[in-house]
Design a protein that fits this description.
CATH architecture of the largest domain in chain A: 3-Layer(aba) Sandwich
Order of helices and strands of chain A: HHEHHEHEHEHEHEEEHHHEHEEEH
Shape of chain A: globular
Oligomer: homodimer
CATH class of the largest domain in chain A: Alpha Beta
Helix content of chain A: 40-55%
Number of helices of chain A: 13
Structural class of chain A: alpha/beta
Distance between the termini of chain A: 35 Å
Largest sheet of chain A: 7 strands, mixed
CATH superfamily of the largest domain in chain A: Type I PLP-dependent aspartate aminotransferase-like (Major domain)
CATH topology of the largest domain in chain A: Aspartate Aminotransferase, domain 2
Strand order of the largest sheet of chain A: 2-8-7-6-5-3-4
Low-confidence stretches of chain A: none
Number of domains of chain A: 2
Radius of gyration of chain A: 22 Å
Amino acid sequence: MEIEDPLEKLSLTPYMTDLCQSSSAIRKMDAIAKKMAEKYGKDKIHNFSIGNPRVEPPETYNKIMMEVLQDKSFYLPHGYAPNTGDDEGRKAIAELFSKIQEVEISYKNVILAAGCAGVINIFLRTVLIVGDEVIIPSPYFLEFPYYVSNFYGKSVFCETFFEEKWQINKERLEKCFTAKTRVIIINSPQNPTGIIYSEDTIKMISELCQKYSNKYGRPIWILSDDVYCRVLRPNKKHHQIFKFYKFSVICYSLSKDLSLPGERIGALIMNPKIKLCERNIHAISMSNEFLAIYPPNRLHMRALPKLLKFTSNIELYNKSQEIVENTLKKLNIEFIPPEGAIYIFPKIPDEIDEMEFCELMVENFIVVVPGSAFGKTGFYRLSFCNKPEDIQKGMEQFEISYPKVIEELRKRKKNNI
Amino acid sequence: MEIEDPLEKLSLTPYMTDLCQSSSAIRKMDAIAKKMAEKYGKDKIHNFSIGNPRVEPPETYNKIMMEVLQDKSFYLPHGYAPNTGDDEGRKAIAELFSKIQEVEISYKNVILAAGCAGVINIFLRTVLIVGDEVIIPSPYFLEFPYYVSNFYGKSVFCETFFEEKWQINKERLEKCFTAKTRVIIINSPQNPTGIIYSEDTIKMISELCQKYSNKYGRPIWILSDDVYCRVLRPNKKHHQIFKFYKFSVICYSLSKDLSLPGERIGALIMNPKIKLCERNIHAISMSNEFLAIYPPNRLHMRALPKLLKFTSNIELYNKSQEIVENTLKKLNIEFIPPEGAIYIFPKIPDEIDEMEFCELMVENFIVVVPGSAFGKTGFYRLSFCNKPEDIQKGMEQFEISYPKVIEELRKRKKNNI
């Protein structure tokens, strides 16, 4: 295409222009997957790349929404909401997290916003100044660094290791702190590894944050992305942050445990130990307004107290994980067993190139995401958010494709291709 | 309240801390109104301060939503949507604006996002670098400058005048352009004045933007906030931007013409004259994802093609405006008759202080917003988004309160109180 107008090429920021041109690993896989689907039919491709839960929302969802639609008692049922969200929804969230965190949380410490990602953005907008640093344990949820960039913050990655079961190492974390450190974002159960931070890890992070808050005279926030806090394997316990560290906030949404990611219902919960909690929530509510994330859509926000009484059939993920693990074990693939969430992050044999592996897997009908998308090469993320029967079919194909791919790549390597 | 921990006071950015402490004019009025309501009862207070439409959504709204809820044909009906929004909704918006702008618009030039304010934010995120300037005709919708601040842009205000019927003056506008100018935000029908920019005004703005784009070698965008483009008085025509200027985008939502502001359904439409339109839309869709505005909630997005076939009973606003105008005329109050939207922006007599006027009006049961909230002292915004019967009651009180307030303030002035 010929662009006669030279101005056109300069119509975006350099940052966005670069982003448009860069082909992410995920998009590369998607493009191959699309070609494969065209050639062999969509059903042949087993897509383990997506975190879009395919276990249905609670059965009562439709009934609840119908009731809300017909409820005549609400004044201006589709009108603008307060920037903190409706009090009824805040109360429901406060009640849930009072139980989870085992501490009394007032609804005044809660703000509702459109999704967990929205909550992270309004929080960062409220605490970051240009150049502030945000520590992110790596591998990480791939959007975190973009959120930090929105407000011209700097992401500082703290590497974690397979050999250490993806727990955070104290020495390595301590090296990340500087006078500019403002936030550390933790996510547990974690995307992409599925691990839960142990109580020791949480204590250690808390102590370091306190130490460097005192040293540099400005509080360092722990932002705990707890979107998977109710998506746990049997007998696994989610960490509690509020009792260990004062300057902590939790973000949460109904995207995973109720399978409603498209409906954009999220919340931020602030540690009630903070005396200026109401002032802080008021500030974040202004970011909610001015950044135009806003409270969740009114219809779902009105339904929130009722919706929160249910979850999807989360036990299906236990079954799905079991199927995946059995196949991986059979093929001698190394992995740390996930304790929650809907992902597993297996190791690629050392001599095999990650991108070549993932590309060849797609060409053999299996779509996974290269670890580099999450800041960690040599691994891949396999999402098991599908129903067990579909996971079963996919893993049968995996069992055929994986040895073929590994053999082919070893052959290529040997022949120096 | 005693705060023992000195870190607490430093837990937000200085910008947000200041915002929390500053008491906006609107909040001041709200506080007085609340006290009055406690003392005299809520029904006694006539609140003309809010832009939350109180004319109901289209009658078919509930029926449409029920249908969408029960539609089993949609794959993952509550799952994540593409970052551009669903194609069906994009097509419906493209069709509507092809008619409004009288030019063929492809759905590929449309992106759906959560509300008009969300659309403005993702657009600014995609085109502004730190320090870039955004021209905003003043008086303005009060949130525009905050959106610009989110990305460390600078708002440059171009004053408009009652005596010039709030149209933009060429000489004054031309003085606003610099090498850093990146965007001009226009809003028509306008909040708070209700005027529509004439075709001459639109042509003039377009020519200046072209001139300075060429001069400084970077395109200057016109962002046209057309949220009220279907909320017009009889025989009034909304301006068309696409035919006059290439680097233009329109933002729109269902908040006003369908009375669904709480449901967060918005769209950005890019001028099809731009050859790199798809690249640009792709970039904005990445901002939609990374800023976490996201497409509208899936339930309403799926309903969008059906919803767009209807509007609220917008004619009620004609009646409401008539009632307001009749009262203002009777009281010899000066105003420019609104041509659209749901606001009127009358003049306060020169010798009267704006804040004293608005405060005393609230104490006399009438809540309006001081003009300074919109960047223009000496005026106030009166919203007539209520139904005519409520407007009627309110204006009866206005007719009693206004002369009392003016008399009292003139007396105070005379006695130098």
